[in-house]
Give the backbone structure.
Amino acid sequence: MTYAKRILPHVGLVVLLFVYLLIGATIFHAIEGPNELIQREQELGTIFGLRNEFREHMWNITQDEDNKISKEAFNLINEEYFNRLARAMFLSFRNQYINEKHLLNETNGDELLWTFPNSIFFATTVITTIGYGNLVPTTTPGRVACIIFALFGIPLLLVTIADIGKFLSEFLSFLYRSYRAFKRKVSPHTA
């Protein structure tokens, strides 16, 4: 019974830390997951809209027999659409919600950044202060939740690490004392 009383607070603290991580991951997943889908659809809509607008413009130019366009004017039109498309694509890639598979229609939409395992990874990087950085909350509620999560999670992690260190130190001291006592019993005394 005394062994359980000694180890239970340490195990309880570790379990509390893991439960805290899972709660945080659930919150981040619930806040940022739906936003990712909305953001992706908006960004794809912008990019595909520019593409379709360019196609329509080029089609209208080629179908108008009365309107002969110079090469310079054609290049200016292409440059304008290319610049708008490049800005939209870089903005989308910076948000990390779109990759080349989305643009080429080679995905069925299940490639999400804010999966539950990634949310656990993010929650872990927040409380360990690693800040890996390739997955970040983009919504205001997600950012506020991240700050609050870190305010309580970082001290909880530090207390847990300190407790584990103290426990291991006491355990190693106990092992060493046991070893010395055993060695005294086994080895004969010479006087």
In short: The chain has a mean pLDDT of 84. The helical segments are 2-63, 71-95, 100-103, 116-127, 140-186. The longest helix spans residues 2-63. Residues 29 and 187 are 61 Å apart (CA to CA).
